[in-house]
């Protein structure tokens, strides 16, 4: 419709000029011709389609959206409060994955629902799994619901072998022996997707590495917007640095707290906190009365 309108308008204008002022003002006629054809060329030239970026959870979406600011908007699969551990993919989500140019996810330890679709649905998309990015620091799962100090955590394997040397661990061993075997088994089944905790973004230094990776991948598939992506990434990293400074100044490192799900050790390690423990290591298993009492 736009093209037809332009052509019609040009013809009427051309006819008018020829009959009225052509002899007096050839320059004006030629100018208008050039203008109309230039506008027609712009209006009918192909426009590059916006790249389709898909991600899984809100923390990733926030980082990606910052890097893509002014260029596009990433699509988010889990846009509600549903846990990624229990999420079920819908047909609309499958369509997003099928049409995607670039997909970001944490890894199978976080979004278990993505394993099969990535193999069966995704066609030509580049897929970035952040748990496979070498520059991102990863922490091993904590195997006990009552946490020791950070030194104990770092030497967990050695401490586990030397339980007899510590009175506290002697008591815990006795309680552990009395714990329901089924609950213990279920707790450890929650970590069957590898040895590392997948809540990597809660360390802001990891978040900065993720921003670098996001910008790198976006530039790779959309080099025309390289400057914009890199500038946005730099701004985002500066904002994260400011956040690190603010949290470091304001946080109470002496606070004692308990979490429902052991998901925050990256934050604890970065800012020197000491959580007392977690009510559950596996969100699919409710804690027993004995475990709650111990914590």
Tell me what you see in this structure.
The protein has 295 residues and is of the alpha/beta class. It has helices at 2-20, 26-44, 58-67, 91-99, 115-120, 150-154, 156-161, 167-178, 181-189, 204-221, 226-250, 265-271, 289-294; strands spanning 53-55, 75-76, 102-105, 126-129, 256-261, 274-280. The strands form 2 sheets. A 4-stranded parallel β-sheet has the order 2-1-3-4, with helices on one face. It has a two-stranded parallel sheet with strand order 5-6. α1 runs antiparallel to α2 (26-44) and α10 (204-221) packs antiparallel against α11 (226-250). The longest helix has 25 residues, at 226-250.
| Largest sheet properties | 4 strands, parallel
* Terminus-to-terminus distance: 71 Å
What best-fitting shape do the alpha-carbon axes yield?
globular
| Alpha carbon gyration radius | 29 Å
What value does the average pLDDT take? Answer: 78
Lateral strand order in the biggest sheet: 2-1-3-4
- Structural class of the helix and strand makeup? alpha/beta
Encode the helix/strand succession as letters: HHEHEHEHEHHHHHHEHEH
Query: Can you count the beta strands?
Result: 6
Poorly predicted residue ranges: 39-48, 150-192
The proportion of residues in beta strands is 5-15%
Portion of residues within helices:
40-55%
Note the total helix count: 13
